[in-house]
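Let us practice reading a record.
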Amino acid sequence: MAFVSHSQRDPNGMYTFSSRPRAVENRSKYREPPQEQSHINYGNIMYDRRVVRGNTYAQRIIPTTTQPDPAEIQRQQELRRRAIARKQAREQFKPKTPEALQGRKHIDVQTELYLEELSTVIVATDTECQTDAFLDRPATPLFIPAKTGKDVATQIEEGELFDFDREVQPVLEVLVGKTMEQALLEVMEEEELACLRAQQRAFEELRSAEMAEVQRLQEQERRHREEKERRIAQQKEALKREKEITEKIAARAYTQQYFADLLPSVFTSLRSHGYFYDPVEKDIETNFFPWLMDEVHNSLEKRYTARELLDTIIDDVTQKRLESFKDPEPQPQETDK
């Protein structure tokens, strides 16, 4: 809360208020044009999170006074250096703006922290001038935005807000106490961590021995199980073979008994149907008789051919004799036949 006041000095050197204090209006985070507000919001300091209320001894002290770990600081510095080197390499390999095409040109844009609206177009012209050699460019003046809002002031007498010598003592007591307590806690934590590591090491050793024993027992149990399964399989195989042999013997005996009376009748029926024959007789019927018939047929064919030839000769002679008898010419003298 701020108090708006207009003070003036009396001839005696005392300050007096000419108006009553009043709360300052809340101001928006962004610049907005002034407008009429029907409702005025006042800020209450009792609801501000930045204000500490109550006893300061009960406040939570953020452990910022503890010394950071040197390894963590070195690691953070190394990460920061790597990030900077990575950023520099990325900027080095970052593609630059290419040259403008023919008939075009590059223009500057606003990249400052505070942007200004360009309502009027300013005609820019290029001029040249001769400067001195190695003349440094003057520093760019810092841009300071125009001041907005109302000025307020508060009259505070000396010693009204804070007495350092009197109020710093409990703060120092709290800081020192918290530091000592934190140091003791860290020492106790280190001792407890050392005890936990020792217990964990002993537990790991015991667990490793137990795991080795468990693995040995599991391997022994696996070997016993495999041996048992192999013995059972062998016994089952032996029983199976014995059963098969018994079934074969029984089937053979039954077959012999069944075929004792069947075989003579079957052989008799097969012999009567010609399935059992004499080899010599079969050979004569299948080989000799066909050959003999072929030879007889060939002989008959030759005889028939000879007979046809002889008939043809006789017919020719007869025709010639007949023609000779019909011929009126004197007959030649007969020769002895």
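A brief commentary: Residues 1-7, 36-40 have pLDDT under 50 and may be disordered.
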